[in-house]
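Q:
My hope is that you can spare some time for a protein that puzzles me. I hope you can help me see how the letters and the tokens relate. Thank you; the sequence and its tokens follow:
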Amino acid sequence: QHVKCLQSLSFTKISKLESLPAYLQSVTILRNLLIGECPRLMTLPEWIGNLTSLQNLEIEDCPNLTSLPEGMRRLTSLRSLRIYGCPHLEQRCQKEIGEDWTKIAHVPKYSIW
């Protein structure tokens, strides 16, 4: 709970992970975040928008992740977003027509498949 600065953090192959740990809210600098193979993860918290130093976000093989929070708009340092193996997000993040597109439209480099 006393960690304030991390370069990179990965949550991978955690079958019981249903949400990101609350202690991440106190991390003031986090540049890279990978969330992968977490089948029970259904939502990202609204406070993810407080991770304003985040530059790279990868979300892979989280089939039950159904949408992105409004807080994604506040990730103005985000330069790269990769979403793979998340069928709900694939639909919602379609360029210009997906329900969540406006939340990530500011990200210069993105791939969703």
